[in-house]
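Continuing the batch. This is chain 6 of the set; chains 1 through 5 are on the previous pages. Same settings as before, nothing changed between runs. Recording input and output for traceability.
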Amino acid sequence: MSDITTIKIIEFPSTGLLPHHIADEKGFFYEEGLDIEITATPNSVFQITNLIDGNFHIAGTALDNIIAYQEGQGVTELSRDPDLFAFMGASQVNLSLVVQKEFINYQDLKGQSLAVDALSTGFAFMLREMLEINGLNPNEYELVPVGATKARLESLVEGKHAGALLNPPFTEAGESAGLRVIDNSQKCLPPCQIGVMAACKSWAENNTETLRAFIRAELKAIKWATEPANIDETVNILERNIPGMSNSDAKSAMKIMLDPNLGLANSYRINEEGVAFILALRSKYGEPKKKLVDPTRYIDLSYGNLL
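Output for chain 6:
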């Protein structure tokens, strides 16, 4: 194929990126006239600012990051007015509260520091809600921004902080390092729309066919990954492309991703109840205070006919 368009993607490393790697290795991107370059972001600030500045085209991120910067509640100034939006869902990872081995429950975290990506975006509000539900007030712990999941895990292994929310495969890596899981988001919180694929509206409007081709390739990859005959190869692709993931970790991750409700099969969809909860969290904890209730300000599924 002579005309190949390169899409630059920036995202947080996780098992949720599996469709990208499948679409790349199985040629689904190539069939759509695409090539991809994936960059792992060190934190949400770097990701969003570089997406806004046009250094990347698509971001795999938390829906809350999109809402935060659209509402002027992000942690840094942007170079221009944001026009961020989510165009499809992504695999909904389960966030585990991973702590030092000497801590058994939430009450043990009183007076401790907890690592987050950024203080007012991403998973920080989910962590605050989990702590509040389990009896901890904001003045009884400290949140410290350290960056993306890999950096949070490293801060725990090095003993710098008491706990953090981690997603696979970093949760499993933490347990292997002797850390303890005391809770997780799926058990503690209502349904959450955590991950999305996002872009700037200005780029999407000028590259509509490219974005549609990307979505088609992703959907092909999701379908391929969930077919029983492809499970073993999917495990191998996951192991090859996720740093630090063993074959046994990949097999365990695939069991989760094959869940009919929480797995890959419907990951491209947006969970309306989950969006409503994320908006409620941001209305509760975001600054400046705003009542946020309209998901259409941040989501447009029309590019992939995913409505």
